Amino acid sequence: MEKTNYKGSKDEVRALNAYVKLMRASESMTAKIHRHLTDAGLTVTQFGVLEALYNLGPLNQREIARKILKSSGNITLVIDNLEKRGLVKRERSNEDRRSYAVDLTAAGRKMIGTIFPRHAAKVVEEMKALTGAEQEELSRLCRKMGLKGESSEG
Predict the structure, then answer these.
(1) pLDDT at 154
(2) What one-character-per-residue DSSP string does 88-132 give?
(3) Is pLDDT above 70 for 18?
(4) Domains annotated on the chain, with CATH
(5) Dihedral sign from CA coordinates of 18, 23, 26, 27
(6) 19-29 pLDDT tens trace
(7) Which class for 38: exposed (0-12), middle (13-18), buried (19 or more C-beta within 10 A)?
(8) In whole angstroms, how far apart are CA 59 and each of 10, 36, 51, 55, 85?
(9) Summary mean pLDDT of the chain
(10) CB-based contacts of 31: which residues, under 8 Å, 6+ apart?
(11) Average pLDDT score over residue span 135-139
């Protein structure tokens, strides 16, 4: 069992051990689940943008960045590259002429429509390491941690 070698207080050691396990599990799952993206010539972030647009419809760059937890500067470059490949398009917003909505092109919709079902199946396969109840508990705990992080910023 992996644990920290840090010789701090009991609370520090417990928190660091949990953190190390969380990060290792996350990295391991990400590597296993995202292997198929290389075949499609996509980065994890590019896939995240396509997936968000596929499931949520047109979004502006700020919304995309917030949904996939990336900086708006990084998202600009990612969208530029997806646009060059003909997978997304930018259209000026009717509500706010300073804003652009990003949407999938037909080619982008076809690509993500092919990739996403394989991706979802891989997630389901990897999550079978946990029972349904454990998956729900993991979701609850992750949400609790995520919400704590949001409330402490600011």
Answers:
(1) 39
(2) EEEEE-SS-TT-EEEEE-HHHHHHHHHHHHHHHHHHHHHHTTS-H
(3) yes
(4) 42-152 (1.10.10.10)
(5) negative
(6) 999 999 999 99
(7) exposed
(8) 45, 25, 12, 11, 19
(9) 89
(10) none
(11) 95
